[in-house]
Amino acid sequence: MVLDKMERAGDASEMNGEKAITHDQNRLQVLIDDSDRFSLDGFQENDKKILSLLHQDSDLADNHYTFNGLARKLGMHRQSLSRSLHRLESSGLVEKRGSGYSLSKDLSSVLVKKSMVDLENLSKKLSMQSANFLQILHLYIPDEVEVCEIVKGLVGKWFGNLRWLGLAEGDGGFILQWSCSEKFQMNLKIVSRYATVESNAAGEKDRREAVVCSYRIFENIIKIFQRENHSIRQGTSSFSHYN
């Protein structure tokens, strides 16, 4: 736990109901809320932006973003992002998996109330920035094709001007996200067996490009359909030959 690491780094003393920790002659105050909860007051603003993005709708989805995806999504310089991720990983709040960076624990269970409110306000700002998405394409996924195979086939993929951002996964389905030429975002939402491609492109030129991007996503889904159908036919053929 972050608090434990901080305590090992220096001597702790009680001060006005807060726990003060001394390290290298500098005094760092960590607010204690009922138990072992801690505050983000000592963290950088970029650290909080990363946490707020990964925490966004965390009650509904598990968010995963690649390093480049975080940089594009937050408009953050790569060196600044690298330093922030190092701090967050060292603190035990963020971890890197195969699909990208994600929260390593439920923030609502480890942060004081004030820090949670701050993060939720940041999340609302991020949500407002990406609220104006328009649906472009709708697709029904056939029963013989596994939804998880489509997700697995598209996660982390780049095609044309589309650059991979990240994945939000929850009980309600999946949201796969790409950035197009650093100008606008494309999302593929999959709920049950229904898929929707949407974009927040603004302006006639970008919207036309978003339509082209949506068909690129569609084409890659069709390729996965074809691979899956080929595998099914091969399996059926082998079974028939065996009998």
Q: Secondary-structure element order, as H and E? A: HEEEHEHHEEHEHEEEEH
Number of strands: 11
Give the averaged pLDDT, no decimals. Answer: 77
Calculate Rg over CA atoms: 22 Å
CATH class of the largest domain: Mainly Alpha
General description of the model:
- The protein has 243 residues and is an alpha+beta fold.
- It has 2 domains: 2-129, Winged helix-like DNA-binding domain superfamily/Winged helix DNA-binding domain (Arc Repressor Mutant, subunit A), CATH 1.10.10.10; 134-242, Double Stranded RNA Binding Domain, CATH 3.30.160.
- It has 7 helices and 11 strands.
- It has helices at residues 2-9, 45-55, 67-74, 78-91, 113-129, 147-154, 204-242; strands spanning 11-15, 18-23, 26-30, 61-65, 94-97, 100-103, 134-140, 162-170, 173-180, 184-191, 194-199.
- A 6-stranded antiparallel β-sheet has the order 4-8-9-10-11-7, sandwiched between helices.
- A hairpin with a 2-residue loop joins strand 10 (184-191) and strand 11 (194-199).
- The longest helix is centred in the C-terminal third of the chain and has 39 residues, at 204-242.
- The protein is globular.
- The chain starts with a helix and ends with a helix.
- Residues 1-34 and 235-243 have low confidence and may be disordered.
What is this structure's SSE topology?
Layout: H1 2-9, E1 11-15, E2 18-23, E3 26-30, H2 45-55, E4 61-65, H3 67-74, H4 78-91, E5 94-97, E6 100-103, H5 113-129, E7 134-140, H6 147-154, E8 162-170, E9 173-180, E10 184-191, E11 194-199, H7 204-242
Antiparallel strand pairs: 1-2, 2-3, 4-8, 5-6, 7-11, 8-9, 9-10, 10-11
